[in-house]
Amino acid sequence: MKGKESKPHIGIFGRRNNGKSSLINFLANQDLAIVSEVAGTTTDPVKKTMEIAGIGPVVIIDTAGIDDSGELGLKRVKKSFETIRNIDLGLLIITDNQFGVPEETVVAEFQKYEVPFVVIHNKADQTVYAIELAERLKLDYNIELTNFSSFEGYSRDTLVKTIKRAIPESAYLSKSLVGDIIRQGDMVLLITPIDVEAPEGRLILPQVQAIRDILDNDAIAVVCKERELDQLLKRLSPQPALAITDSQVFLKAGASVPEHIPLTSFSTVLARYKGDFQNYLKGTPHLSKLQDGDKILILESCSHHVSCDDIGRIKIPRWLSNFSGKNLTYEVVAGLNQIPGTITDYAMVIQCGGCMITRKQLINRLRPAVEAGVPVTNYGMAIAYMHGIYERAIAPFVKVDKDSLDYL
Hints:
By secondary structure, the protein is α/β, with parallel strands linked by helices. It has three domains: 9-171, P-loop containing nucleotide triphosphate hydrolases (Rossmann fold), CATH 3.40.50.300; 187-269, Rossmann fold (3-Layer(aba) Sandwich); 277-406, Rossmann fold. The chain has 14 helices and 14 strands. Strands 2-3-1-4-5-6 form a six-stranded mixed beta sheet, with helices on both faces. Strands 8-7-9-10 form a four-stranded parallel beta sheet, sandwiched between helices. α11 packs parallel to α13 and α13 (379-386) packs across α14 (390-398). The radius of gyration is 24 Å and the shape is elongated. The chain starts with 8 loop residues before the first strand and ends in a 10-residue tail after the last helix.
């Protein structure tokens, strides 16, 4: 549900008819959300990109009422709760001083996924919040209750400042992919196959991100396909300070790029940039410990056209079955869809590079596996391990991340 890390995602939660949609329209200063006196107008989470004066570009996620009922209503509530792991800030909207089980459940989910939140007492033109409630929220959650109404007499600036203060800095920050392992003027070689999975007329997102990051760090990006790699290396002078390859041609790149040139993959770069790198380092060697009958969960971060040579659905299962020599079964889950069964049904989780989701989404996606002790890895690191060049692929980063050295 969340695309760019630099754009904060704000989820709006509350009971039906508490004025969530009115609040969104007030913040945007335009009619973006449908407003109705009929409870339950918003039935599913709806994402809206907007510019809020005083905050900047944000994505607002309008959710169904947390007090919805009935079989369909409970499904809507579940959908609303699922958005919590993907947001940077939660706005919990209450009215008439109601703060009961539905609100406490939402707050518990905020805390579980470490999402900062603000509680807003809406429709204050009708009922002002009770001092007792404000004191309770301060004592229980260390938060200030904000009085608000979209009608005249209540300051928009005050509300905006409250929201802005609560948005964590991490919602805006985007660290460098390779900036800490290259220097100004370094040449970085990018090995990018153009095959049936490559989008026509452009590079895939991780490749584009790497090129931009290299340029942002005042270094030089040189791009080639794997077929031209050997000839290019003979002609390049000075030689690259770093080589980054697509995981699918890791074996070819490993054979061609001299040992003195650090080599890694786009997927490994992304694993460190936004993935659970420490747990990937712990989990990847478990690929050697799989047993007959084990079930492997493969997580894709996006939905895409599946080709006959798809890396997640075809190549990794084929490589892993051959590498392990075991009779394994595979479950592939695309996007942020629900994982079938329970996480302990799986012996291993293999996450894609995550170029289409944020670090927060990815970490929360893997959290159930990590907490249950199920080993996790990612595409690039798994491929490198199966092809016998794992230590080389992670070496450029474990030398920088001293906490990682124990896993070499």
